Amino acid sequence: MLINMKKLNLVFTLFSRLILVLLLSLHFSCNKKTEKKAPKKPNILFIMTDDHTTNAMSCYGSNLIETPNLDRIAKEGILFNNCFVNNSICAPSRAAILTGKFSHLNGVTDNAKVFDGSQLTYPKLLQKAGYQTSVIGKWHLGSAPTGFDYWCVLPGQGDYYQPDFIEMGDTIQVDGYVTDVITGKAIKWLDKDRDASKPFAMVYQHKAPHRNWIPAPRHLGKLEDVVFPEPENLYDDYEGRGTAAHEQEMELSVDLWTVWDLKVATREQLESFGKEHKDDNENFQEKAHDMATANKKEDEIKMLYNVFKRMTEAQKELWFKAYEGRTNEFYSKDLKGKELISWKYQNYMRDYLGCLLSLDENIGHVLDYLEEKGELDNTIIVYTSDQGFFLGEHGWFDKRFMYEEVYRMPLLVRYPKTIEPGSVTDALAMNIDFAPTLLDYAGVEIPKEMQGVSLRPVLDNHGKTPDDWRKSSYYHYYEYPSWHSVKRHYGIRTQKYKLIHFYNDIDEWELYDMEKDPQEMKNIYNEPENKELIEELKLELKKQQSLYQDHDPDEKEHEFFHSVMEH
Ligand code: SGN
Ligand code: CA
User: pLDDT confidence of 555, banded at 50, 70, 90?
Assistant: First the structure.
């Protein structure tokens, strides 16, 4: 009996131990499961170029160029037809993207303002949430980047060949072509320098295709024999449009300079300038605006020499081989009027689009890298540009206006976990939405002070526009008087209409029917039958201004708030 009891005890102890082992292993396997299930935060790759219009992207139907790698992002993700900038120049757009706020609240109303880096930005919040953050490439905000574990940025506008960078405070010069160098640095950071145990958020920003549009050495002369289709309104005379359209300084005919912009210069001119100014370290480009008014060939040579002196001997050979024919043609033909505009347009396109060849290639390298490392589908890839650009529409280059070609930004997003490949949307999006959207994907609370909204309801819903989505987008441009002389203005765009008010030294309104007149050739503000429509749109404009805490600086503040309160 005693033995039996002992046996029984032993069996019981063994049994209970077995149960304990079973329970423990169950517990651990459950834990393992939850560990596996805990969603890995997505990586973020924010790609932004400078001055890249949707009209030079084949996924947007361009008839000028093929951009296969950008098209891949669109095909495997979503394309926005109606993404708009808050203020169509560089620093103001970049500051709005970082802060999710309009210019009057983030302080960067024009390119001369210095960004206050102590402000709340989305990279700072991602960093706090455990992301490894970096910014590589064009920055152009005057102050040093904040909120990034690693930063390596171009000073100011940067250079195309053998560019300088400021890397974590130290200035370095790097051999190579700017688009290739930026990509090399981006891939190196992804591959070697980041803490791979954390998700990454990389802000990868190109200088190309910014003025004065210099293609990679391997692409110099590549498009020299191509003849590009001209925009229908290349010879626009601005009839029926207001003072702002008449008085701008961005016409191909007079404001696009032959030497600086179109590289019409002989070897002799550049080399002899170099000899005369051997010890001259002046930064001629910084003085470009003052020179612009003088607009003398000698000054343009000075500016171009600034580019030339950074080139290697081999690059100089490629350069002259590419531009010799163009230079000779210019001097032999003595073109005038429409013929001159047409000639300038073709050569402008050859260089602007030439920059895009290396841009598209390089974006392909980054996509391939992520794919090879198995990170492609776990990375939210955003492609955009700081604003659009005129490619001869209205006879113009540059941006600044609230007109469509420069107000619209490209926006592609790839993230197959929630975004249906091949989606296309007409929903109204704005650059102030980028920060809230990325924070939303990262599971970070969107701060109340950000004025944009998360685009996820559109992105994750096959691009369908939710019923309660915004009905208009708001715009405000301030940089006047300055480069290109575009007068100050603000306005709204709905799906159908665009209402613009030019203020400061003029007081003029413009109204366009975007469905009937997508090229904005006919201002219908003064047509009597539009009276009611204009009243409605002005009311909507006031609502938008009150929503974003903005107003017309020419209006007395109390009058403005009074009128908003009345409605
Ligand atoms: C430079 C350009 C201008 C351009 C501004 C702003 N001139 O000053 O044509 O509008 O940049 O561009 S250049 O002769 O120096 O190239 S932005 O994209 O940075 O806003
Ligand atoms: Ca720009």
Answer: confident
